[in-house]
Amino acid sequence: MRSFVRAAELGQFQHAADELGVTQQAVSKRIAALERELETRLFTRTARGVEPTLDGQAFLSHARSIVASADRAVAAVRPGSRALRIDVLGLRSAQAVVMHDYWRSHPHIDLDVVTLRVNDPRAAVAAVEAGDVDASFRTVTDPAALPPGVQMIHAFDSPLELLVGPGHPLASARSLTPPQLRKHRIWVPGIAPRSEWGEFYDQLATEFDLRIDAAGPHFGDEVLLETLAESADVATFVGARDRYIWPANYDLRRIPVADPTPAYPLSLILPGTNPHPELRKIITHLGTLPKLPEPAWRPSWAIPDPPRS
Amino acid sequence: MRSFVRAAELGQFQHAADELGVTQQAVSKRIAALERELETRLFTRTARGVEPTLDGQAFLSHARSIVASADRAVAAVRPGSRALRIDVLGLRSAQAVVMHDYWRSHPHIDLDVVTLRVNDPRAAVAAVEAGDVDASFRTVTDPAALPPGVQMIHAFDSPLELLVGPGHPLASARSLTPPQLRKHRIWVPGIAPRSEWGEFYDQLATEFDLRIDAAGPHFGDEVLLETLAESADVATFVGARDRYIWPANYDLRRIPVADPTPAYPLSLILPGTNPHPELRKIITHLGTLPKLPEPAWRPSWAIPDPPRS
DNA sequence: GCGAGCCACAACGATCGGTTGGGCACTCCT
DNA sequence: AGGAGTGCCCAACCGATCGTTGTGGCTCGC
Asked: How far is CA B90 from CA A38, A42, B94, B135, B253, in A?
């Protein structure tokens, strides 16, 4: 592939061979193999070199894309000068959506979004400390326990929305207040009791006297959505930015909650010194996200938004 | 690469091997080779399969991009179901810019922009007839001479702008009319006498009594631009959409011409029957381009704009 | 504790990919 | 017109690689 690209750009097999450190015959064989595989002639041979045919021109842009991707791929795992790597809770989470948006507006950044296969935020702290990831969208409820060299900052607030099926009594509401959710069963499966989210829902339930049922195992989003779609009295919470686009969307409705807006405060754990240079831009971008509508409710451990630098 | 992607998606070497039609050992060796090359562990081996490591996750998205590009690359040259292929005069031409804009707003189209290495528009007609390209942004001045099965339609009008260096007497004008260009030498090198562009400039010069000097060989855009930049009495014409971004831009100025606006009418040669399905969308898109400001001047052979369908 | 399932290692044959050497076609220069 | 130079292709050779079969180690579940 590289031989093809360089040969097309330089117009001569010989020059491409010199650049690649092989003989001209090797390049010739590579191109010939490519042409045999594609059953197409990619170059017209002239007296002073080669020129891409129409097929060769069409192939060239894709070939460039391949070698560029290959370079990025090795750069992504090469220690030292590797791509910015950020840990998110899942590819459908608001965190991932925000990072995706950022990537779409900055297409040239070398960004890799990964998910640490751990539940304990302290493992995420260790991963940041060890350099396995450059930053992690997780929250430790006791910031004082952070080891030196690791800091946690406020990322953005994720306001909650109620997700209900078409048969639910609140299905046609345009907006809801927390007191209106009283007596309705809210099911958030797969939330561990002592986790950040468990604490969050505990505080939320206590504050507004809600019935938030965190019990029961989580059999996957499909099961949850199907249950919601068919039930007339079960609802759940999702973040406003969470990605919920399925092939079959079950006709579910997302209803914003306000007065006050309950929001989960997302944090970013990152090294205290020498963060990845691209990370600063992302933090700046996080600061430009729309603010939460006031009044808002946040759990007790929420970090105040730092002054805009 | 495909082995890696499928193994990561399926979570087992065995399943990936079955899909790829090789043995599990072969997949294992491929991954091992990849890991040796990258000097990184891409999977953690568990009792019930494999799971991507952080590096593996980071690598995965790039690997997906590579296989997708590879698939597109072969599709681009596979006869039968191949990508839409359009011939433009050059990658900096207004035609190419318009196609690039179209691609940016329709990223999923499989579009290949190529350049036929011919000067005669009849060769472009033959290429369309033979199916080497799906369409060509060229113009034959006698549409009646088109063979059956090939048609030519109006694409869009490319208004002219004057390109001058900072020392030229017209350099500070915000806009110009054709009569104001009289007595100024306009140099358009590399235009063959009997070609479409030669005819165009002939008619333009006659109409407005201009000094358009098409003589002299064309030594490349760099030479032309450098000449313009250093000369106080030479100017040239460029299309308003032509791409003229060089690392050193020589402080050249583009000055629109109006009252009337001289415009080169760009045509599209395409098969009369069974055009590529994506081509219809592009033709529709061409119809949505901003119209030429009136009054306008076009050469005698300009095709009237067809009624909007 | 034992079988099932999955991955890694070893050995072997076929194929691939590179090199050297030679040849042909074309251009340029004398 | 002829020779030097250049650029690509073909042939022969050889080492590396790739995929196969066979085997062993490991974990999980019954």
From this structure: 26, 19, 9, 15, 22
Q: Is the pLDDT of residue A247 over 50?
A: no
The protein side of the strand D contact, defined by CB less than 7 Å from any of its atoms, consists of A 12-14, 24-25, 28, 31-32, 43, 45, 47-50; B 21-23, 25-26, 29-30, 33, 47-48
Nearest CA to CA, how far is A224 from chain B (Å)? 23
Which DSSP symbol is given to A106? S
In this predicted structure, the answer to whether residue A244 has a pLDDT above a threshold of 80 is no
Residue predicted with more confidence, A161 or A92: A161
B14 contact partners, CB below 8 Å, separation of at least 6: B24, B49
Task: Give all domains of chain B, ordered by start, each with its CATH number.
Answer: 2-77 (1.10.10.10), 84-156+264-293 (3.40.190.10), 158-262 (3.40.190.10)
| Amino acid at the residue B174 | R
Measure in Å the smallest separation between the Cα of B39 and chain A Cα atoms: 8
pLDDT per residue over A257-277, tens digit each? 998 999 999 999 998 877 787
Which phi and psi (to 5°) does residue B264 adopt?
-90, 120
A26-30, A171-175, B89-93: lowest mean pLDDT where?
Answer: B89-93
- H or E element, residue B237: strand B234-239
Residues B147-184 have pLDDT tens digits of 888 999 999 999 999 989 888 899 888 999 999 999 89
Summarize the confidence of residues A19-42 as an average pLDDT. Answer: 90
* Cβ-based contacts of A128 with chain B (< 8 Å): none
Rg (CA), chain B: 26
- Could you tell me which chain B residue has the CA closest to the CA of A55? B77
Phi, psi (deg, nearest 5) at residue A275 = -70, 160
Q: Do B112 and A61 touch (CB under 8 A)?
A: yes
